[in-house]
Amino acid sequence: MPQNPFRVFIVEDDPFYGEILSNAVSKNPEWAISRFSSGRECILNLHLEPDLISLDHSLPDGSGDDFLTDIKANSPDSLVVIVSAQEEISTAISLLKEGADDYLEKNDDAPNRFFNIVSKHFETVSLRKQLADLRGELTLKFRFDQILKGNSPAILNAHLMMEKAAKSAINVLVIGETGTGKELVAKAIHYHSDRQDKPFVVLQGGGSKGHELDLEMLGAEKGALPLIQARRKGKFEEANGGTLFIDEVCSFDSSSQVKLLRILREKVVYRLGGNTPVPFSVRIIVSTKKNLFEEVKKGNFLEDLYYTLMGLPIHLPALKDRSEDIMPLARFFLDEYAVTNEVSKYKISPEASKKLINYSWPGNIRELKNVIEMAAVMSNTGVIQETDCILTLENEQENLFNQELTLKEYNIRIIQRFLQKYDQNIPVVAEKLDIGKSTIYRMYQNGELA
Q: Disulfide check for 287: which of 174, 206, 293, 322 has CB 3.0–4.6 Å away?
């Protein structure tokens, strides 16, 4: 039986009928059944936290009326089923108005009906526990010191501001360069707030423009646009009751800024092709890699929108400005890689450490994570050497690590680079990268290498 089983109390002074009800639910080994012949016994055992109580309306020490109030006061989460004979049905129904959850008539169908009542409540309780576990997992996953690692003063201050943000409904402005973890910070605030059970929705400011951004913000009615075959919710409507994270709001063009300001002031949206106002209630968190106040002074950002959005500012420092956090982060990413790939933990040589610390990290934490993962792939000894840390790629104008690629895509890029360097000599490249020649041939066959 589970450590915390689903617990059923059967309160019945008739041994025969108590046995009938007990047998009806005893087939499920996940249910712990306790039988009592008096209401007093039931009350004295409520510390066991029963999930469901079948309460006979007529007991030797009182009626259901006498015990229902005590049960609900001391065990409010317990579902109470009043069990009564035919002539007591009207009384049992009146008890439903006083807090009982269901009633069961003593007839031939009672065992089956009781089993169904218990089964249904068991499913409900199980779902609640799963939801509670999920909440706990999310809260743990998005612990402030887990999603924003480091012990530098700037990071500790960010943790403090995130804690304050989670306890209020104030707008939050997250400021930081690309790759510093702005969206993760927004998620952490959401999952520590009283809106954690509601949606967390992202509106990408930099990824959409013009009508595309209008569609993202407002949604659309069926047929409003050629490809809209059904009503589509906008991001504000999707996030209703929860948190809307507006990523890189500094990338909104002037027209979109005006629309965003109006939406935030009126707290309603009008779907494209519609004229019915759709109200919403959302918590707003915005991010920016630019100084919005400077953008206002330059005429690039609406002053009214700036003051509407401006709430609690959280500054995320660039990695180059907190060098004391580089190696702890590197070791964390290495350990994470080892666990994910089920390999032994790696060490980092002093030369590699020096190289990592002295690098400027234009891609910030995202770049460091990618560099460390590829260093683990490149390492042949279990110790990350200086040569395993590929910080720049020759003859490339753009730093590869500023791109958001999967580890597989990065591996393909590495192999392509080595093939180019060694004139497409597959045996040499395979030896240099310590991989099988068949791996490279297979990637050619799959069209992954050109």
A: 174
**pLDDT, tens digit, for every residue of 296-331?**
999 999 999 999 998 899 999 888 888 888 898 898
Residue 227 tokens read as 């490809």
User: Would you say 25 and 122 are in contact if contact means Cβ atoms under 8 Å apart?
Assistant: no
Whats the size of the chain, residue-wise? Answer: 450
The CATH code that applies to domain 142-317 is 3.40.50.300
Report the alpha-carbon distance of residue 229 to residue 312 in Å, rounded: 40
Q: Could you tell me the fold of the domain covering 320-445?
A: Helicase, Ruva Protein; domain 3 (1.10.8)
Query: What pairs with residue 315 in β-bridges?
Result: 175
CATH number for domain 6-137, candidates 3.40.50.2300, 3.40.50.450, 3.30.450.20, 3.40.50.10990: 3.40.50.2300
What is the mean pLDDT of the segment spanning 236-257? 92
More confident residue, 191 or 227: 191
- The helix or strand, by DSSP H or E, that contains position 7, with its residue range, turns out to be strand 6-11
Prediction pTM value: 0.57
In this structure, are residues 433 and 378 in contact, taking their beta carbons and an 8 Å threshold? Answer: yes
